[in-house]
Design goal:
Blueprint: H1 2-11, H2 15-35, H3 37-42, H4 54-70, H5 76-102, H6 109-127, H7 136-155, H8 170-200
Helix pairs in contact: 2-4, 4-5, 5-6, 5-7, 5-8, 7-8
Length: 201
């Protein structure tokens, strides 16, 4: 088992694995923007649209991180934005779908597909944490962006659309999302520090 895990971790930076991840994340990002097309069209004023497609924006940023790894480069600010948002919205989507089901939303194949793909988003952010070069100041940059996004999402009602059954609880979802943002910021930085210390020992 240890040998298999070591092979898997080593494969994370192998060109064939990175290309596979780039293609999967890239196609998923395209699908995500198509998914948000109608909500983007309905969002006004237009400058708020940058805050609407949370998941596909996050997966696009992570795709760019994978490309930088492929070419042997690192962009710490990009890593911070990608890792935090990709983890946050990966967990958020799974949690919101399950919460909707808990209050009566009937799940279909799309829900399960979304939970699988978004769970993968969260997982990849954690797996690649061992390669991030971000610093604490980059986490603060992401904190400003994500917390502003949360504020706008739940005061201007531009958050990703919820199941009808979950709409009466959108204020609870808003507070939970804020908590998830703070947890995501802490977790990514804590993991980076952990792997950095381990490399030094």
């Amino acid at each position: 088992m240890t040998t298999l895990w070591s092979w898997f971790i080593a494969s994370l930076r192998a060109p064939w694995f990175l290309w596979t991840m780039i293609i999967i994340n890239g196609l998923g990002s395209v699908y995500g923007f198509v998914w948000y097309a109608y909500q983007l069209e309905m969002t006004s004023p237009a400058f708020l649209r940058v805050f609407v497609p949370d998941s596909p924006t996050a997966s696009t940023l992570f795709t760019l991180v994978l490309i930088t790894l492929l070419v042997g480069r690192s962009v710490p600010a990009l890593e911070a934005f990608a890792a935090v948002t990709n983890f946050k919205y990966g967990v958020w989507a799974v949690a919101v779908i399950l919460a909707g089901a808990a209050v009566g939303d009937e799940l279909n194949w799309q829900h399960y597909m979304l939970m699988f793909s978004h769970g993968g988003m969260a997982l990849e952010s954690l797996l690649y944490a061992r390669f991030y070069t971000l610093q604490l100041r980059h986490i603060f940059y992401v904190a400003a962006w994500t917390l502003l996004g949360d504020l706008l999402d739940y005061t201007l009602d531009i958050h990703p659309w919820l199941a009808d059954e979950l709409e009466p609880y959108d204020h609870i979802v808003g507070w939970a999302t804020l908590g998830l943002s703070l947890f995501s910021l802490w977790l990514i930085y804590a993991l980076v520090r952990f792997f950095r210390r381990r490399k030094r020992s």
